[in-house]
Design brief:
158 residues; alpha+beta; five-stranded antiparallel beta sheet; two-stranded antiparallel ribbon; 3 helices; globular; disordered N terminus
Length: 158
């Protein structure tokens, strides 16, 4: 969640300066929950495809020079929105900011659990089209939760 908030808080300081990392101000639990809900609703609305995937493998990658980031290969296991995704999808850190490696995706955190909800702005996801990955325990957006429940019911053995 800290990486998510840091990613939301990056602001550009002029066109010739590097982005600065600015953390969101402290907030009450209700405000934090609303911010999270708004962010997840935005991910859902901007995505053509949403699916649950498990990490096949994860490892370090170099980011333009000496900075180190992560790469994760994701295997789709449950379709929540959009056309079915079958191929593996690779996501990776592509650049470094004052907040750390970016993009800020839960699936790229080295200690993250192995299953994620993946949001793609494209019907045929590529690493560049993935706009978010969330650990299931972080998911609170009602449409995503409902889609997961329906998809799981369809996929469950009878």
């Amino acid at each position: 969640m800290k990486g998510l908030l840091a990613g939301l808080a990056i602001v550009a300081v002029g066109s010739s300066q590097a982005p600065a990392c600015v953390m969101a101000p402290p907030a009450t639990p209700e405000v934090q929950r609303q911010r999270t809900l708004d962010f997840q609703a935005s991910l859902w609305d901007r995505s053509q495809t949403v699916f649950v995937a498990r990490v096949e493998r994860r490892g370090p990658v170099k980011i333009k020079g000496a900075h180190e980031g992560q790469e994760a290969v994701l295997r789709p296991v449950l379709q929540l929105k959009g056309p079915p995704v079958t191929p593996l999808v690779t996501v990776r850190h592509t650049h470094f900011t004052s907040c750390g490696p970016a993009p800020f995706l839960d699936a790229l955190h080295p200690q993250a659990e192995g299953v994620f909800v993946v949001y793609s702005s494209s019907a045929e996801p590529t690493g560049e089209a993935v706009i978010g990955t969330l650990a299931p325990k972080a998911l609170i957006e009602p449409r995503a939760l409902e889609a997961w429940a329906k998809a799981y019911a369809r996929a469950a053995p009878r």
